[in-house]
Specification:
alpha+beta; Trna Endonuclease, Chain: A, domain 1; 2 domains; 6-stranded mixed beta sheet; 4 helices; about 20% helix
C-alpha cells in the first residue's frame, strides 16, 4: 500500500523540485546521484539516509560529481513562499529547515569532505527581498505588516542557493517553527523546531539552457551581469538568465554564462 504521505501536495512539490534540479545540474555533463530516490528513508521526515559507522544518518538529496569539479551535496527544498519574520532579528524574509537536520548535514560534509549546499525552489518570491524601507515601517500596525507580507509575495518562481556553512553562521534556532502559535503541534523533526536564516544571504540562480562560451557571472537582482563574447561586442550587457556551474576555491558558487532570447 502506498504511504499517504507520497500523495500530499507537500511531497509532490518537493519531489518535482528535486527532479527538476537534478536534471538541470546534470545538463553540462555532470553525474548526479539522486539519494532522494533511495528506498531507505527517515520515518518522520521522509529524508534519504546514509549508512555510517555510527548508524543511519540523514543525507542531503543528491551528490553531484564531475571530473573537473569537486563533488558536492545538494539538499533541495521546495517552498511555497519564504517565511516573514517581523520580530528580531527581523524584520526580514527567511528560509529554513528542521533544526535537527543542521547537525546531520554538517556531519555529512565533515565526513565526506564535500560541501553541502541548500537549494530552495521558491514558488512565490517577495518583490522587496530586503523588506520595507526601515524608516517607512516604524509606525506600522499589525494590520500594516500583514498587508505588506501579503502584497509583497507577487514575484515569480525562483531558485536560491546557500552553502551550509553560511546557514550555520547566519541562522538561528526557532523552537516554535514551523507551526508558530497557531499550530503548536508542528515543531519540526523530533519536535526540535527549525533553523532559519535570512533569505537575503542566498544567491539567486536563474535556470536556463547552457551555452558556449563559458564565463564567470555575478548575479544582480533578477538580472545577471556577464561578460560579452567578442563577437557580440565589448563591454557588459544584462543577460536574462544564468546557471550555477561549480563551487570555487572559496566555497562560493560560480556560474556559467547563459544567453537569453535577447542574446
Amino acid at each position: 500500500m502506498t504511504d499517504k504521505f507520497y500523495l500530499t501536495e507537500e511531497w509532490l512539490r518537493g519531489d518535482n523540485a528535486q527532479k527538476q534540479w537534478a536534471a538541470f545540474v546534470a545538463q553540462p555533463g555532470r553525474l548526479v546521484l539522486p539519494a532522494y530516490g533511495f528506498s531507505g528513508i527517515d520515518g518522520e521526515s521522509k529524508a534519504p539516509l546514509l549508512l555510517t559507522a555510527d548508524g543511519l544518518r540523514v543525507s542531503p538529496d543528491m551528490l553531484v560529481l564531475a571530473l573537473s569539479e569537486p563533488s558536492r551535496w545538494h539538499e533541495v527544498k521546495a517552498k511555497a513562499r519564504p517565511t516573514w519574520r517581523r520580530n528580531p532579528p527581523g524584520p526580514r524574509w527567511e528560509h529554513g529547515f528542521d533544526y535537527s537536520l543542521k547537525a546531520e548535514y554538517a556531519m555529512v560534509e565533515k565526513k565526506s569532505g564535500s560541501p553541502v549546499f541548500i537549494i530552495v525552489q521558491e514558488e512565490r518570491s517577495p518583490l522587496h527581498p530586503d523588506g520595507p524601507e526601515p524608516g517607512a515601517c516604524q509606525s506600522w500596525t499589525t494590520e500594516d505588516w500583514c498587508r505588506f507580507e501579503h502584497d509583497d509575495l507577487q514575484g515569480e518562481q525562483m531558485w536560491l542557493s546557500i552553502r551550509l556553512t553560511q546557514v550555520e553562521n547566519l541562522g538561528c534556532h526557532r523552537a516554535d517553527w514551523p507551526g508558530g502559535k497557531k499550530e503548536p503541534h508542528r515543531r519540526g523533526r523530533n519536535g526540535q523546531g527549525g533553523w532559519l536564516w535570512p533569505r537575503s544571504a542566498m544567491r539567486c540562480v536563474h535556470v536556463a539552457e547552457l551555452c558556449v562560451p563559458e564565463r564567470v557571472t555575478t548575479a544582480v537582482s533578477s538580472k545577471v551581469q556577464c561578460e560579452v563574447p567578442e563577437q557580440q561586442g565589448p563591454g557588459i550587457k544584462q543577460c536574462e538568465s544564468a546557471a550555477v556551474a561549480e563551487v570555487g576555491d572559496d566555497g562560493d558558487w560560480k556560474q556559467r554564462t547563459l544567453w537569453g532570447d535577447n542574446g
